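Dear colleagues,

For the upcoming journal club I promised to circulate an example of a predicted protein-ligand complex. I picked one with adenosine-5'-triphosphate because it came up in last month's discussion. The inputs are reproduced below in full, followed by the predicted structure.
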Amino acid sequence: MVRTCVICNKERAIIKRPKTRQQACRECFYYVFETEIHNTIIDSKLFNKGDKVAIAASGGKDSTVLAYVLKLLNERYQYGIELFLLSIDEGITGYRDDSLETVKRNQQQYDLPLKIVSYSELYGWNMDQIVKEVGLKNNCTFCGVFRRQALDRGAVMLEVDHIVTGHNADDIAETVLMNIMRGDIARLSRCTEICTNGDECIRRSKPFKYTYEKEIVMYAYFKKLDYFSTECIYSPNSYRGHVRTFLKDLEGIRSIAIIDIIHSGEAFELKKGVKLPIQGVCKRCGYISSNEFCKACVLLEGLNRGLPKLGIGKTNKMLKKYGNMPEGMATIPKFMNKNSDSVSEQC
Ligand SMILES: Nc1ncnc2c1ncn2[C@@H]1O[C@H](COP(=O)(O)OP(=O)(O)OP(=O)(O)O)[C@@H](O)[C@H]1O
């Protein structure tokens, strides 16, 4: 049976929106998809006119669609922001080298400046070398911690005010579930924030907070966007992978479950008296940290001392076991910010 688009009531519907189950034509799907993201940006006051914004670009579907849509919305609604692409080269042969080729093509296609920062130049180690040391089990910890800091460092090099990432509604719902299952109250209380600012120097936000992964894939497919679709070769059997499978099952039964989980996460309130870690700065590299040394410095020290397990688990417990961090070890360059000598002075 031929169905008519429920939005324009004219064209033939060729899409069933995964988020709302609405039948829509292609043009109406594009329009509602883009407009919902625009509404999220406006409702959350993500940007100020004149902001320099780095799009964390991995070459994957999410960040590729993000670059395309942000460029389009910036022109359509005159946000007045300046966009850049910022990519981190983790040094994963057969994965990141190929996806970075996609980012380089996106740079041409979208005519945006691109900056690539590598783990090797920042930390003296790439992921291929790290996996040789630590194996497949804990390597995602190294990669995640190092990437977070690498993005901030790249943003400082680009002198931008803001980083946006392609984290989508599914990613955020997964994170809520993971934090509940781990009892990680500190992260649970902040993982649904669309924008982190105040305690961090470079604003970081997720314009796709309410955008379903399936719709991002559909949009990329129908628009024929150029993106890289292989999964990371070093992340089989990650904890997140199991949560993802669980969430996909839930979505199959009730598609709105993803948004409901995000709303539940937003509604969590901490009991009075619950102590949260206090943000300070790393004594060694100046990056934000709730401990004396940031996680990246501890992980790096573990690698350099031939003790890769040093940074896995509770830092204080591990330092007790393996001994304190010796002074004068190879370390990450001091985190410098465009307005101050170090993060501590600006935040
Ligand atoms: N190497 C990288 N360089 C720059 N940004 C990255 C990199 N890896 C991840 N990101 C950012 O973090 C977001 C979430 O990353 P994740 O690893 O969960 O990938 P994903 O969900 O497959 O997203 P994508 O489809 O964009 O790769 C990405 O959308 C991107 O904005």
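Two points we might discuss: The longest helix spans residues 139-158. The first strand starts at residue 15 and ends at 16.

See you all on Thursday,
B. R.
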